[in-house]
Design a protein that fits this description.
Length: about 100
């Protein structure tokens, strides 16, 4: 009885983790955000962007917005490398964007 109960709890936890994820153009993207020396500056790498370039761009924009809102309470971003300026996926199947939270 203990094993089935623990399996149900485990499946319940993984479902909750995935329910907070957002899909873009039908795909889930993992992103890595690197904060600059000035905490307002950031660089984002969106992985597996080869599945959908437009979805990857939106995933990067979303990640940047979440960072700025959580850290500074604003969604205003000044882009050094705007997602719209990205025209192709890199050889590592990723895209890179860069910006700064405007406060």
């Amino acid at each position: 009885m203990f094993i089935p109960l623990s399996m149900l709890l485990l499946f319940g936890c993984s479902a909750r983790i995935n329910e907070n994820r957002v899909s873009f153009d039908g795909f889930m993207f993992n992103s890595k955000l690197k904060v600059g020396v000035n905490k307002k500056d950031f660089e984002i790498t969106v992985l597996r962007a080869n599945r959908s370039l437009s979805g990857a761009k939106e995933a990067g924009r979303y990640e940047a917005t979440i960072y700025c809102v959580n850290k500074f309470g604003t969604s205003d971003i000044v882009w050094d490398l705007d997602p719209e300026d990205v025209s192709e996926v890199s050889s590592s199947k990723s895209i890179f964007i860069k910006g700064r939270c405007r406060i």
